[in-house]
Specification:
The complex is a heterodimer. Chain A contains two helices and two strands, in the order H-H-E-E. Chain A is of the alpha+beta class. Chain A has a domain of 45 residues. In chain A, a hairpin with a 5-residue loop joins strand 1 and strand 2. The two termini of chain A are 28 Å apart. By secondary structure, chain B is an alpha/beta fold. Chain B folds into four domains: 116 residues, Nucleic acid-binding proteins (OB fold (Dihydrolipoamide Acetyltransferase, E2P), Beta Barrel), CATH 2.40.50.140; 155 residues, Succinyl-CoA synthetase domains (Rossmann fold, 3-Layer(aba) Sandwich), CATH 3.40.50; 138 residues; 46 residues, no CATH class. Helices cover 48% and strands 17% of the residues of chain B. Chain B has a five-stranded mixed beta barrel with strand order 1-2-3-5-4. Chain B has a five-stranded parallel sheet with strand order 7-6-8-9-10, sandwiched between helices. A three-stranded antiparallel sheet of chain B has the order 11-12-13, with no helix packed on it. In chain B, strand 1 and strand 2 form a beta hairpin. The interface between A and B is large, with 45 and 45 residues. Strand 1 of chain A pairs parallel with strand 7 of chain B, so a sheet runs across the interface.
């Protein structure tokens, strides 16, 4: 996972702001170039976040220490869950 | 609603001993001997216990409610004519969902017993139902009112739900449809999510405690498994009793205290629980909660790609703008004319050049005048024509002088031209100062050259002068030669043919002039041998 990068939410928000600013022509030429580069970087970052993160389904359980631990999902008693498998 | 067979309140009636089922009904007919208080109380106790059904449902108005420190509840039930003192032991009072208040119309269920110590009979209530409304319904209303007064449902208190959670905890039952519905929905919409199930029971007396505890534990421990962005609490549909855990105050408090945003999804569309009211976002069903929790990833990707395309278009436009911008900068620059400065420098150079030219011309003219003066002198020194060698020498000198001056002038002219063309070639702005300096140097050099040349010419002139003096007619005359001129016009006499008989002539000798008249003349014989 990326260390202290922008969260996806912030990245997308920034992306929307930049796109709007540029489209409305609110910023100067030089700044536009900067923003354009930033925007492209954000597009890439957002895409990466969405496509790299994988789906994980697990469950929390009280471990031996009394603390919560992450365990594989167990819905064995659940009739309704059969279709999920 | 409690399923109670409705029984109208018994008519108040006078005590009828025949209706009391006593151990010894027959003994009522006769008077007894003296008995102790406890004997009588025991008699009454037995009479009541045998004569009154062990479980009665009593309708009445609640008054004098007292909750004792021990947890037991004391109250009085009354109607227009009678009062009944009642006790509810702690174990039963704890199960009371709603808060018992004075003035409340209730149906109390319990048994009548005699408290022998005070000789009072009391209704020992095991269960109380409010009249007209269910106990749970009432409890719900009461809790809602109380929590609302505390501000727990206020929008300002609610935490914003993240648009793009990465890790979600589902607090729900591991059995039943709700969990499958939620997982299926979350997975379908946002297949890049970490889902953690926190299994709890969602109905029964333990449920509310488990749910509240789960919420608290996720809050205190979630950093250990990477941080949780969102919690969903919920369960599928059921009766009010089934959903009751979500109406419990402990659950409401836990939701309220959670620092992680919580979405509730309890029951069906129409069910609203306290948990729903206090949660940061409320969904009608567990599935709806899952939909509310995550965006559709494909839509999101499409949006992002749209932004990417917009940026690409923008880049194209930026390129155009840059080109236009550059052109306009150039236009502006041309208007300001950056070459003006260069032209000014060129003008200065031109001035220097023409000054140089004028100076050279002046010198040349001066030299020419001097030369002309010298020439005039030479012209005046006619005797050289008599003196062949001298004349020749003079001619050579003159020729050399002219040549020298021409040469000098030409050289100066050439250098001037060269300087001019060099000046022309110079890159104007950058080298103008240096050019000016070089021009100055060139001017100095040219002037020095001219000076040198003139000096050497002057020297030649003085030599020539001395030479001329040396060959002057006077020294010739000293050697016996004389100059003869016709008196008319003072013309130099060179040939006998230039003079006629009788004409006067003047002859200049070294020491004076004599005048004579032509007597005769003859061909060269005249000069033949003395």
């Amino acid at each position: 996972m990326s260390k202290k990068k922008l969260s996806f939410e912030d990245a997308l928000k920034q992306l929307e702001t930049i796109a709007e600013q540029i489209e409305l022509g609110q910023i100067g030429l030089e700044e536009s170039i900067e923003k354009y580069e930033l925007g492209m970087a954000l597009v890439k970052q957002c895409r990466d976040i969405l496509s790299r993160a994988e789906l994980r389904i697990e469950q929390l359980q009280e471990g031996e220490s009394g603390k919560l631990v992450v365990k594989p999902l167990d819905l064995s008693n659940n009739k309704a869950s059969e279709e999920l498998e | 609603m409690a399923e109670l067979p409705f029984e109208p309140p018994p008519e108040p009636q006078r005590f009828d001993p025949s209706r009391v089922a006593g151990p010894t009904p027959a003994s009522r007919s006769r008077e007894t001997g003296p008995m102790t208080v406890s004997q009588l109380t025991g008699l009454i106790k037995r009479a009541i216990e045998s004569g009154v059904p062990s479980t009665v449902n009593v309708i009445g108005e609640v008054s004098n409610v007292k909750r004792h420190g021990s947890g037991h509840l004391y109250l009085t039930l009354k109607d227009r004519f009678s009062e009944l003192s009642c006790v509810m032991w702690r174990s039963d009072a704890q199960r009371l969902k709603f808060v018992l208040n004075d003035g409340m119309e209730v149906i109390a269920t319990g048994g009548v017993e005699v408290f022998e110590k005070t000789g009072r009979y009391q209704l020992y209530i095991r269960k109380i139902e409010p009249r007209g409304v269910g106990a749970l319904e009432l409890a719900f209303r009461q809790l809602r009112e109380r929590l609302a007064a505390e501000g727990l449902f206020d929008l300002e208190r609610k935490k914003p739900v993240p648009r793009f959670p990465r890790r979600i905890v589902l607090i729900t039952s591991p059995t039943g449809a709700a969990i499958s519905d939620m997982i299926r929905t979350l997975t379908r919409r946002f297949p890049c999510l970490h889902i953690l199930l926190f299994p709890v029971s969602v109905q029964g007396p333990a449920a509310s405690g488990e749910i509240a505890r789960a919420i608290r534990r996720v809050n205190t421990e979630h950093e250990r498994f990477g941080g949780v962005d969102l919690i969903i609490v919920g369960r599928g549909g059921g009766s009010l009793e089934d959903l009751w855990a979500f109406n419990e105050e402990v659950v409401a408090r836990a939701i309220c205290e959670s620092s992680i945003p919580i979405i509730s999804g309890v029951g069906h569309e129409t069910d609203v629980t306290i948990a729903d009211l206090v949660a940061d976002a409320r969904a009608a069903t567990p599935t709806a909660a899952a939909e509310l929790a995550v965006p559709v990833r494909d839509e999101l990707l499409a949006t992002i790609n749209t932004h990417g395309r917009r940026f690409a278009r923008m880049a194209q436009r930026l390129r155009e703008i840059s080109r236009d911008g550059l052109n306009s900068v150039l236009r502006l620059a041309t208007q300001r004319d950056p070459f003006l400065l260069i032209r000014r420098r060129e003008q200065v150079l031109d001035e220097f050049a023409s000054r140089l030219e004028r100076a050279l011309l002046n010198r040349l003219q001066f030299n020419r005048r001097r030369l002309a003066a010298l020439d005039a002198i030479v012209q005046r020194i006619a005797p050289h024509r008599f003196v062949f060698r001298t004349g020749r020498a003079l001619e050579r000198v003159e020729h050399r002088l002219r040549l020298a001056i021409h040469l000098s002038a030409n050289r100066c002219g050439m250098r001037l031209l060269e300087t001019n063309s060099r000046l022309d070639r110079l890159s104007p702005v950058v080298r103008s100062i240096e050019s000016t300096r070089r021009l100055d140097r060139a001017e100095d050099a040219v002037l020095a050259g001219i000076r040198d040349r003139l000096e050497s010419l002057n020297q030649v002139l003085s030599v020539t002068e001395r030479l001329l003096n040396a060959v002057s007619y006077k020294s010739v005359m000293a050697r016996g030669y004389s100059i003869t001129r016709l008196r008319r016009g003072s013309i130099l006499l060179r040939s006998i043919n230039e003079v006629r008989k009788g004409e006067h002539i003047a002859t200049q000798l070294i020491d004076g002039k004599i005048e004579s008249q032509i007597v005769s003349g003859s061909e060269p014989t005249l000069f033949e041998g003395p």
